[in-house]
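Example 3.2
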Amino acid sequence: MRGVGQSDTPFCFFSKGVVKSASIEDDSGSLLGRDYAQEMATLAWLDYQLYLPLHSPEAHAIGPGWLALKTAWYWWIVPGVAVYFFAVWARTWHWHYLLRSMLPVPLTRLFPVVCIGYTGNNVYPARAGEVIRAYVLKKKDALGISASLATIVVEGIFDGVVMLLFVFFSLPVVPVQQWLRRVVFFSSLLFFGTLAVFFVIATSPRRSQAVRDWLIERLLPARFQVQARGLLDRFVEGLHSLLSGKDIVMIFVTSLVIWLAETVKC
């Protein structure tokens, strides 16, 4: 049996095929038949590697897990993947409304950036994919990372508000322990309080700027104050979507659609 780190594992074959075909597509605009055949051979090899363990004599030693894998109805993957990408598209739509006061990015251009962010969240800890998609958007459309991160923070707050609304509607009909009610109460204070602070910052720029300058002058050395003001200015710019009533409604509606889709997916 080959070691996982060897260069001729199926995963490495697959990676090489994808990278090579992608580079050819970038240079010439089309995939060569040789690379297409290589990718098809790679997929067939991967299918064989998945089939072999489930049909070998040793597979019965796996026990119930083997039986579950062998008798599973894999057609459920198709609607599951469809709902998943619908949720990703809704997330793209959601972010579009958060960004359009600064930069009206088309949905088709923004969708791959959101996919990259989702991938980063699956691979790296602490939801690092959110920072990654802000970085990718800066590279593609020259929008400051601070402003993008502000929209992502607002996005998370609206997500939290929607989840709390789901909990509020379920509280009268679902028995909930007292400690969980306290969690809901303090979470409500956190999300609604942060959203209220962001509204004040967005609607009162002069007052928020005065508070910003007061804090920076007292908390930071002089050599860092200019950079800090620039970062906070761009962060406040990312809150401008809260100045439009239409955008706020659409942000809330798209957040609701996202979490309903996530519920269906689960």
